[in-house]
Amino acid sequence: MKKVISLLLLFVIFSCGIDDDILHTHIELQKLYDESELAGLSVAIVDNRKVRYQNSFGYSDINKNRRYTNHTIQNIGSISKTFIALAVMKAVEQGKLDLDANINTYLPFDVIHPLHPEKPITVRHLATHTSGITDEEVYFKSYVFENPAQVDVSIYPEDYQPIVELIKTNVKIDDSVFFENVLSVSGPWYSQDTFLENAPGEKYEYSNIAAALAAFVVESATGISYEDYTHKYIFDPLHMNATGWGFSDVNMQSHATLYYTKDFEVPRYSLVTKADGGLITSTSDFNKYLIEMMRGYQGKGKLLSTASYKEMFRLQSKHDEIKEAMGGIFWDINNNNTIEHTGGDPGIITACMFDPIKNRGYYLMTNTSEEFNINIERSIEKIWNTLINENPDRNY
């Protein structure tokens, strides 16, 4: 059956006029998937006008024999943060937000760096991971199992069990409550350990909490929920009809089952701080967004002004621990001028990148994570390198 499916796909590729380079890429990707221990996989190559190649491999649900397709949806992890970048810049355009304003201008409670109270945290600090806010163990309070009573802690590796035990105790709360609990000095989860010794603006420190707080700042400044704001100004204009921030916001019949390994399912979970990693989408929908990002970088986008896109992709922070990377507004900007972001959470790995010089964008997502199997990470690395090294120099 697998050979029949592959032959049919090759017929479609040839009949659509796909060039030899992408055909070679497809064949190599199929080979790498077959050799991997991934459950499902979806990849795409786009330019600033259209999708040049997209395909999916394997299963969205192994037990139900359900195929992973370009329309399969799942959470995409930290790539979600790039949508915060768009929302922040849209609010700036609307005059509702100032990148360099103290975030307490907008928040219903104060967030003050305890070691540097004289130095306000700004929106820009949050958006460039230089706020001084860290994650620490308190971030695990953001994860919520849909059915905690059904989660068997004993089947997890011993060093992972305390985290699972913690998550089992979590309950769904509004993200505003989470932020006040963690970051307000009167909050029950408040600790100075949630802040670096460095003052705001001094040091790059990747922070999920700070990123999600930026989305809450947008919500507070605009008076519109972050979910509604992103639907109105991002998803709807791009016709991302399969995309949303929660299980009630999407068609769950298309949702993938997530896996640690093919025989170890991830219990269904969600994030209280959904903006930093909880976006649910498909490859087909994400392609529309990636094309818009490429067009925006080139001054041809429709969601933001040219000036706003330029600000979003401008070098603004140095990643001390990653010599070849610097940061824009939530995007990573490499020294070879490629712009990227990756994502990872239980049961998912995602990656996106675009090269404005070569006019190519790439996307990958899988419903399998690497926590308990190093071979998953190795397979993803091979697949990603094959995807981004397709020949971009052919003229179209």
Strand content: 15-25%
Q: Let me know the largest β-sheet.
A: 9 strands, antiparallel
Structural class: alpha+beta
Major β-sheet strand ordering: 3-2-1-15-14-13-12-11-10
* Total strands: 15
- Helix proportion: 25-40%
Order of helices and strands: HHEEEEHHEHHHHEEEEHHEEEEEEH
End-to-end C-alpha gap: 34 Å
Low-confidence stretches: 1-17, 392-396
Specify Rg, calculated over alpha carbons. Answer: 21 Å
Task: Please count the helical segments.
Answer: 11
Question: Can you put this structure into words, describing what you see?
Answer:
The chain is α+β, with helices and mostly antiparallel strands and 396 residues long. Helix content is 32%, strand content 17%. Helix 2 packs antiparallel against helix 11 and helix 3 crosses helix 8. The protein starts with a helix and ends in an 8-residue tail after the last helix.
What are the main properties of this structure?
globular; alpha+beta; 396 residues; disordered N terminus; 11 helices
